[in-house]
């Protein structure tokens, strides 16, 4: 199906890693260009402020990569919402000891120096990109931690497994934002690259909007673009 241009009346929801930026060897090594910062600022203006980034990263991390982004950021898979720089609220009610989870994660991963532990305020991730053969071990570790933390759920990601709060997701973040101005009453457009994006893609389409899958893999999205560069091109064409 041919991808129509982005309507200025749409509410635009964008994933970050693998969608706006190429996946990096380590999460902190992503490259944010001036062109991307400029594109996001212009989109924010054109869509009347109805542009939100919805990411698995926590809000502070994502805002750190995009310090001048004027729009909304939903972080930690929909667990956190930041309506503007300096603002953040929690959208889930799971109480848990993040420091204890992070300590368990570090201890279980310690025998495997190739694994990367990512500590998040609402969970944690174990990356095996540097050692794909450790995938079964990572699965064993994370399933063990999930069993010990029933308020968390196991979230597969690209070359990583993550624990995040149960009962929230990118779809619930999108649905919540659609109740707020300036998103309310617009048709949602969601672009993402990973399995964590699929519920939000289905949510956007169920509301009469549009979903765009970036890259390969099974998807509920009716549209597909090959990589972040192709998404950037489509967004830039919509801006001209
Ligand atoms: Mg992504």
UniProtKB/TrEMBL annotation:
What pathway, per the record? Glycan biosynthesis; trehalose biosynthesis
Q: Does the keyword Metal-binding apply?
A: yes
Read off the InterPro entries from this record. Answer: HAD-like_sf, HAD-SF_hydro_IIB, HAD_sf, OTSB-like, Trehalose_PPase
What are the EC numbers? 3.1.3.12
Needed cofactors: Mg(2+)
Q: Which domain of life is it from?
A: Bacteria
Q: Where are the transmembrane segments?
A: none
SUPFAM superfamilies tied to this protein: HAD-like (SSF56784)
Gene3D superfamilies cross-referenced by the UniProt entry: HAD superfamily/HAD-like (3.40.50.1000), Trehalose-6-phosphate phosphatase related protein, domain 2 (3.30.70.1020)
> Which top-level enzyme class is recorded in the Swiss-Prot or TrEMBL entry?
hydrolase
Q: Which reactions appear under catalytic activity for this entry? A: alpha,alpha-trehalose 6-phosphate + H2O = alpha,alpha-trehalose + phosphate
Pfam families the UniProt entry points to: Trehalose_PPase (PF02358)
Q: Which GO terms describe its biological process?
A: trehalose biosynthetic process
Q: Briefly, what is this protein's role?
A: Removes the phosphate from trehalose 6-phosphate to produce free trehalose.
From the Swiss-Prot or TrEMBL record, give the protein name: Trehalose 6-phosphate phosphatase
Organism whose genome encodes this protein: Paracoccus aestuarii
Which gene is the coding source of this polypeptide chain? otsB
């Amino acid at each position: 199906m041919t991808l129509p241009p982005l309507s200025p009346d749409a509410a635009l929801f964008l994933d970050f890693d693998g969608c706006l930026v190429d996946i990096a060897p380590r999460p902190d090594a992503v490259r944010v260009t001036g062109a991307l910062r400029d594109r996001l600022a212009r989109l924010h203006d054109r869509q009347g402020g109805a542009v939100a980034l919805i990411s698995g990263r926590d809000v502070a991390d994502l805002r750190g990569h995009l310090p001048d982004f004027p729009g909304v950021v939903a972080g930690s898979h929909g667990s956190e919402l930041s309506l503007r720089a300096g603002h953040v609220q929690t959208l889930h009610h799971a109480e848990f000891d993040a420091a204890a989870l992070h300590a368990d994660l570090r201890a279980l991963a310690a025998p495997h120096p190739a694994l990367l532990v990512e500590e998040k305020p609402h969970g944690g991730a174990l990356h095996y990109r540097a050692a794909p053969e450790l995938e079964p071990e990572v699965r064993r570790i994370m399933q063990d931690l999930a069993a010990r933390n029933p308020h968390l759920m196991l979230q597969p990601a690209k070359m990583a497994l993550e624990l995040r709060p149960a009962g929230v997701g990118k779809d619930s973040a999108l649905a919540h934002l659609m109740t707020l101005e300036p998103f309310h009453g617009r048709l949602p457009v969601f672009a993402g690259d990973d399995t964590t994006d699929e519920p939000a893609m289905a949510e956007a389409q169920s509301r009469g909007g549009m979903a765009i899958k970036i890259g390969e893999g099974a998807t509920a999205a009716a549209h597909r673009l090959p990589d972040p560069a192709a998404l950037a091109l489509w967004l830039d064409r919509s801006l001209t």
